[in-house]
Amino acid sequence: MTVIAVSEADFQAEVLDRSATVPVVVDFWAEWCGPCRQLGPVLEKAAAAREGKVVLATLDTDANPGLSQQFAIQGIPAVKAFRDGQVVSEFVGAQGPAAVEDFFDALVPSEAAALVGAGDEASLRKALELEPANADAAVALAGLLHRRGDSAGALELVTNVTGSFQADGLAGRIHLEEAGEPDLADGFSAVDAGDTERALELLLGALPTAGDTQEDLRKVIVAVLDELGVEHPLARESRRRLAAALT
Questions:
Q1: Residues 195, 170, 147, 118: is their CA dihedral positive or negative?
Q2: Which is catalytic among the residues 33, 46, 108, 204?
Q3: Which tops the pLDDT comparison, 2 or 147?
Q4: Residue 29, SS3 per DSSP
């Protein structure tokens, strides 16, 4: 992966003009900036995974004060993505690999992200070969396996995923199904049918008498709410009911 160093002399050609044909990510940095040195390799790795589909450029803010002023750089590292000569996304400060991958995926998906988008089993397995820690691929493949009756295979996949409400929810559902909780069958059927309002009504209604399975049921409900999104009116009301049921 070649990283180009740009300056005020060639910024127009190397960044603005070039961005008409390929996205250009510019890392505004300085030699004295410790977080800049931490972020640089993370950016390079993400760009290398998209070789030929995105260009990574670096710009020394101390040596190019005019551009720093033009793009209102107030803190570094500052990363800006250009397309058709315009800034289309940006962030300030050192970010972890997952956040950087998401930033690049919004510009041009990695091969693994594109495979996840395809959604079939072969593509999902290939995505996990490329990126074993890809949570989206693991959850999607686990869901596919669960729907066809391979609960053990699905559970093995989601057990290795951290920080995903969807993974936790599917694991919780599998545990509940294995425990043979008959009162939850209609709720799960409603989830599968996309009848989210009925699903939440049934699942929340089962919480007070869930006993030892309450934590798994909570994870299932949280996964449904995560699918709805934070601002959905049904999600807001259901979160209130969930909190009340758990107190």
A1: positive
A2: 33
A3: 147
A4: strand
Contact 138, 161 (CB under 8 A): yes
| C-alpha span between 171 and 154 (Å, rounded) | 8
Is 33 in the active site? yes
Number of domains in the chain: 2
Say how far apart CA 38 and CA 107 lie, in whole Å: 22
The upper half-sphere exposure of residue 16, i.e. CA atoms within 13 Å in the direction of its Cβ, equals: 11
CA separation for the pair 192, 176 (Å, rounded): 15
Structural domain span for residue 83 = 4-107
Look up the CATH number of the domain holding residue 60. 3.40.30.10
46 is catalytic: no
Sign of CA dihedral 189, 195, 200, 202: negative
Burial class (CB in 10 A: 0-12, 13-18, 19+), 13: exposed
Report the pLDDT averaged over residues 49-77: 94
Q: Which of 36, 127, 139, 170 is catalytic?
A: 36
Does residue 127 share a domain with residue 33? no
Eight-class DSSP state of 51: B
**DSSP letter string, 60-106:** ETTT-HHHHHHTT--SSSEEEEEETTEEEEEEES---HHHHHHHHHH
Statement to judge: residues 63 and 178 lie in one domain: no
pLDDT at 174 over 70: yes
* Chosen domain end from 107, 129, 161: 107
Q: What is the DSSP-derived secondary structure letter of residue 15?
A: I
pLDDT band at 183 (very low <50, low <70, confident <90, very high): confident
Q: How far apart are CA 40 and CA 42, in angstroms?
A: 5
pTM: 0.68
